[in-house]
Amino acid sequence: MKIISGIIKILILLVFLVLALSNTQTVQFFYLPAQPIELPLIVVLFGAFVIGAIFGLFALFGRLMTLRSENNRLRSEVKKSARITEQDLVVPSAPVSPAAPAVSPLPSERKE
């Protein structure tokens, strides 16, 4: 699994590198209406990607916190259940006297 993950990361890096080398021309970026900025196209594309990723994280933040709290609650329930199970297993028992053998005698040893 680590190998597949590493290969995917390398492929994404190579695609990004090819994209960066193919888009080196400058574009006008209008941040303020009166002041256009000359930037390489890859910088604008990468900036849009980063801003989109940040907005995506903000959109998922509430769900992430809900899942994290539910995960913590379930872990505490598992620990509590494990403690109860351990307490059930460690029950002080009274000394057991040796019992008579539960094996019936052989037919040749039976008294008739």
Mean pLDDT: 83
Sequence of secondary-structure elements: HEEH
Q: What Rg do the Cα atoms give?
A: 35 Å
The strand line-up of the biggest sheet is 1-2
Helix content: 55-70%
Give me the secondary-structure topology.
Layout: H1 2-22, E1 26-32, E2 35-40, H2 41-89
Antiparallel strand pairs: 1-2
Write up what this structure looks like.
There is one protein chain. The chain is mainly α. It has a domain at 15-87. The chain is built from two helices and two strands; from the N terminus they run αββα. It has helices at 2-22, 41-89; strands spanning 26-32, 35-40. A two-stranded antiparallel sheet has the order 1-2. Strand 1 and strand 2 form a beta hairpin. The protein starts with a helix and ends in a 23-residue tail after the last helix. The model has no long low-confidence stretch (mean pLDDT 83). The chain crosses the membrane at residues 42-65. InterPro entries: LapA_dom. Residues 23-80 form the Lipopolysaccharide assembly protein A domain. Keywords: Cell membrane, Membrane, Transmembrane, Transmembrane helix. It comes from Neisseria dumasiana.
